[in-house]
């Protein structure tokens, strides 16, 4: 019998999914919801902030219903206040409106059983427990990054970082200050933001399940016996990997998917990219993208532009419309023989193309997982947040690429970029990275496929929810 269905009566547990309102956080939770749905959770509602819904045209909630909460900024204006002010207002407004939403759903006869929330909204756990719900923390960043924040939260990682090399117990490699997420490494310049990141764990002992968008094989040194909390019922709450949360049509092809890409912050221009890539030789093109958010400075953009012009490889570069003014004058025309510049594309289609030889990336976690799952070697130019840690692991642990080094002014110069691109695309090292790429591509796909490590974790969760 299909899970959740009995004598025509729907017994499916009802899950409310609450992502943080940024593309890089919404998409992983949407993809995860699709997998829950496939496993038999037929009642899923996505709760998103009013401002986000207003601005995300064609919000791709698939078969899910959508409800809104308020973070206190329904008409925008987040950029005009300090992170602390956003956080405080969001805490109050988010708690109140999530409470109202849960009450509304309860009084309409559709009581929610389970809240799956992004720990960037730590107050959501308090609300879930007030309603007696099963509470699931869903981390959209890597487990190494969560682990670092957790050690800092517990005071085991002393801030500001003061040693040139730092050892943290429990599976992390030796780290240099520059390998840490910027909110840890740059604690002194923005302690308030660091405190906000650490508050993800403030009430973790009350949570019932902890999911991370990663896969066991990728971060097993940490995941082996990791728990961020022991619940008030004294059970161990293991951290479970459920990713990579990349659309099924791309990875395992199991879900009856509509080839959706998830939410796209910008309008993709993909056909010209594919037509152009079709004319290039296998593994000859550098694909460059810094995701939806990062804003490299003018000087950095100039160095990158010149490096791409000087290298012997052809390139496809995503320069968001808001960043175009940072390109050197007449650059697009100057490089038209060897480079294609677009404002956005469907990255998965590009990464899957056989012409791609390497991915020059800011190492956002979604991009990193997509590159690993596509077998695309990476050159990392991390900008902020979790990206330095992702770049460190890409180079030292997963052997999937190299991190470009900054000079004393914090700029990665053109020579260094050219060196890194050759390093991953050519010679013996290039071949070694190529072998890692084949390995990770397979392991990522196996993890979500029938009986894979992530698939089993999702299965177990669904069974427990149905039993409950
Ligand atoms: C943010 C943070 O920067 C990142 O570090 C964090 O881990 C998640 O949230 P973002 O900067 O957008 O996200 O980077 P990333 O996580 O890599 O996500 C970018 C997404 O945009 C990817 O899914 C990628 O496929 C998509 N993309 C990018 C496109 O679809 N088209 C493009 O042209 C470029």
TrEMBL record:
UniProt name for this protein: Glycosyltransferase
Domain of life: Eukaryota
InterPro entries on file: UDP_glucos_trans, UDP_glycos_trans_CS
Keywords of the record: Glycosyltransferase, Transferase
Pfam families membership: UDPGT
Organism from which the protein derives: Rehmannia glutinosa
Family indicated by similarity: Belongs to the UDP-glycosyltransferase family.
EC number(s) per entry: 2.4.1.-
The keyword Endoplasmic reticulum is assigned to this record: no
PROSITE patterns assigned: UDPGT (PS00375)
